[in-house]
Amino acid sequence: MRQKGPLKQFEEFDAWSFSRLGESICSEDVKFDFPRLASDENILSSHVAYWEVSGRINAKSESVIRFKGRFTAELSCVVCGSGVQNVIDFDRHLILMTSETQADSYDEDTLDEDTDVVACPGAINLRDWLEDEILLACPMFPKHDACAELAGRSWREEGADMQDTDDYQDDTADGQTQEVQRPFANLGDLLKGGKK
Ligand SMILES: [Zn+2]
Predict the structure, then answer these.
(1) Is 150 part of a structural domain of the chain?
(2) What's the predicted TM-score (pTM) here?
(3) Higher pLDDT pick, 86 / 190
(4) For residue 91, how far is its CA from the centre of ligand 1 (angstroms)?
(5) Residue 13 CA to ligand 1 centre (angstroms)
(6) What is the distance in A from the centroid of ligand 1 to the CA of 147?
(7) Which residues constitute the domain of residue 115?
(8) How many angstroms does the Cα of residue 138 sit away from the middle of ligand 1?
(9) Does residue 166 form part of some domain?
């Protein structure tokens, strides 16, 4: 319980001063729990190997927070539902804007794929923010490389007398190409929540 004091400061984290002062903290300094990562039904098990949050002012005098780290996660395969092991590295640079309007009007074409713009009107919960970044780094549609093959094998091992293997063609993918979009809306809400 002694940890409570030091951890408390990250609940109202001042990202602006943090980046202005060029500070950084990492998993060796602070122990965070990630309850949403632990309770997500598509994440069967996970372990955050390390993380680091650092701040800086970039060449355009913008405040930038960088989230970097590695975690392992066993995600449920979208095809067969059993676990797929993933080692996931994330490294994201978030440019802070004082309002949603400013963030929305930012010319994102000038940014590379690891960089984004977020509205950060006030203090935010750093642990939640980091957890968002970890969740966002998980693949949207985790899938075994040889999932169909594995499924086919166990199906045969069960000694099924169905001989028509034509059924076992890869129609598992059935054209469900859902739109890949990252739930940034949540992050926006979180940041707004930190206002007050
Ligand atoms: Zn699978």
Answers:
(1) no
(2) 0.72
(3) 86
(4) 27
(5) 40
(6) 4
(7) 4-145+183-193
(8) 16
(9) no
